[in-house]
Amino acid sequence: MTSSPMLAPRKWRPLGAAWSVALVSSLAVLFIGEVMGQAPCDLCWFQRVFMFPLAILLGIAAFRSDRHIVPYGLALAAGGGLVALYHLLLYAGFIPAPIVPCDGGPSCSGGLMRIAGVPLPLLSLAAFSAIFGLLLIFQRRLKS
């Protein structure tokens, strides 16, 4: 028997929150790229490859009350989180390799690639981690 979000709203809130994080993150990077004109580096593109499907899939699952999205969402969030972690380690200098910007675009290590003083790789890792954690909470609530 499938539980409707109307019958058990508390159980479904983490899925809605995970979708909100993915949606806001996707819209933010589109704003940075398309409105502000900041070209993403290759690692930023890879992170987008994981985030954009999350915004779509989690939204569909939330509106359809589909509890079967969890393994797919966890896989996408983990993949994106690993790329974001690697990107952050490069940014922080823990991995000795330069961050190479796209042709004509700014480097992720530049001041333009920050929001409120926080570097984009850190924000990306936080978003993927939040989605991963919210999906785990959602999965636990479904079992109880």
Keyword list:
single chain, 144 residues, mainly alpha, Bromodomain-like, 2 strands, 67% helix
Protein architecture, described:
The structure is a single chain. By secondary structure, the protein is mainly alpha-helical. The chain has a single domain (10-143), classed as Bromodomain-like (Up-down Bundle), CATH 1.20.1550. Helices cover 67% and strands 3% of the residues. The protein contains 4 helices and 2 strands, in the order αααββα. A two-stranded antiparallel sheet has the order 1-2. Helix 1 (9-35) packs antiparallel against helix 4. The longest helix is centred in the N-terminal third of the chain and has 27 residues, at 9-35. It is elongated. It starts with 8 loop residues before the first helix and ends with a helix. The mean pLDDT is 84.
Could you name the CATH class?
A: Mainly Alpha
Helix content: 55-70%
Give the CATH topology: Bromodomain-like
- Report Rg: 17 Å
For the residues shown, what is the average pLDDT? 84
Strand order of the largest sheet: 1-2
Helix/strand order: HHHEEH
Taken as a percent bin, the fraction of beta residues is under 5%
CATH-level-2 architecture: Up-down Bundle
Question: Number of DSSP strands?
Answer: 2
> How many separate structural domains?
1
Q: How many DSSP H or I helices? A: 4
Structural class: mainly alpha
Give the overall shape: elongated
Low-confidence stretches: none
Distance between the termini: 14 Å
Largest sheet: 2 strands, antiparallel
